[in-house]
Amino acid sequence: MGIVQPEDERFMAAAIRLARWHTGQTSTNPSVGCLIVRDGAIVGRAVTALGGRPHAEPQALAEAGELARSATAYVTLEPCSHHGKTPPCAEALIAYGVGRVVISVTDPDVRVSGRGIAMLRDAGIEVTTGVLEEEGRQSLAGYLTRQTKNRPYVTLKLAVSADGMIGREGVGQVAITGPEARAQVQALRAETDAILVGIGTAISDDPLLTVRTPGLEAQSPVRIVLDPALALPLTSKLVETAREVPVIVVASEEVSPLGAEEGLPPSALPGISPTRGEIGKRPTPSSPSSDSKVPASANLGQGAGPQPISPLVGEMSGRTEGGNTPTEPAEIDSRHTALEAAGVEVLYCNPYHPEVLLPALATRGISSLLVEGGAKTAKLFLETGLVDRIQLYQAPVVIGEGGIESPLQATDIPSGFAHRGTYIFGADRLDEYEREN
């Protein structure tokens, strides 16, 4: 492990804060922070660049220049040791003559794990590992989950009224939390690769699911709808904006125009990049298959309630057309064609089997997923044990008659979750829970 120096935690905490600047904006690469420290002063600093390259270490070293010689490098993740599209970061640290490297988290990537540390030590560099490891793991949660569990890190966000409701039956959205809490949710979206809702929510709320904070609009996540029978209205805001921010509709394999006899995997479709708003060409992934089939009529989507308590700018319910569920093969094929023509990707992949869907998303480079819409969708992810973090907002608003009951209350958090903190935003309270590994 190496000897921990008195100042190590202070500088590593700064490196972790730096790493969070680009969370969710580095494509398939993790957002890593690196500080170069000499004689107690920071002489170089960097975070993984937008899009994932260049990595943090060469940028920080370049800024430090000659001052990097015999200095200490603080890195939130073990420096890479393999030749990819860029040279190994461990080699760069050696070339600049760094005297010591302090690491928070060892990289689980089999191409790196332990090898970066070994390269540095073989070059005579002192290496200390595990400094603020828990905090480092939290900052790298998406990357680490995709590497170790072959799926994205899943956050479930719920806003619950004083009487235990998340909406009201009938029409569109109900604004349960106030503007301060909603601004916090916008920040969460901005650092997340993808956001997911059920078809009921997509139809009744007609949401945009984008980031509306000025200056962060380009960081909107990929939008995913669980839509077994392709019922998403062609006039919905999601479809109308699909060419600006990617939309994936997850449909039942039973309605696939390719037919089950084709034997194609559910992800045998053009890849979609989680890099903000770009539809990228990726190698065709090979996602796990499943023998279980979900009837096309199954609908675990969530319909939310009638007159909103207060306007929720940009996501008020619209009068979408075409929300009917197609049933005839020709009608389904026509809807598929129309959705793709509008820029929507249709993915046939067991929409209500997250254990199959999540690995398929991981193969597309999606490392973090925010489940935001629908009581039944939330319950689905909770019951399958695929939620890593719960953000539970509690507001003083009372929904009253016709309310949709929350699938989760502060008094019945599932076992295996630890309370990580309580935060106050205006009149609302946020309690955060994280799964204990």
Could you give a quick summary of the protein structure above?
The chain is α/β, with parallel strands linked by helices. It is built from twelve helices and 16 strands. The strands form three sheets. It has a nine-stranded mixed β-sheet, sandwiched between helices. A five-stranded mixed β-sheet has the order 2-1-3-4-5, sandwiched between helices. A two-stranded antiparallel sheet has the order 7-14.
Which properties best describe this structure?
Cytidine Deaminase, domain 2; Dihydrofolate Reductase, subunit A; 24% helix; 12 helices; five-stranded mixed sheet; 437 residues
Question: What does this protein structure show overall?
Answer:
By secondary structure, the chain is of the alpha/beta class. The chain folds into two domains: 8-139, 3-Layer(aba) Sandwich (Cytidine Deaminase, domain 2), CATH 3.40.140.10; 150-435, Dihydrofolate Reductase, subunit A (3-Layer(aba) Sandwich). The chain is 24% helix and 21% strand. The chain has a nine-stranded mixed sheet with strand order 11-10-9-8-12-6-13-16-15, with helices on both faces. Strands 2-1-3-4-5 form a five-stranded mixed sheet, sandwiched between helices. It has a two-stranded antiparallel ribbon with strand order 7-14. Helix 3 packs parallel to helix 4 (115-122). The longest helix is centred in the last third of the chain and has 13 residues, at 329-341.
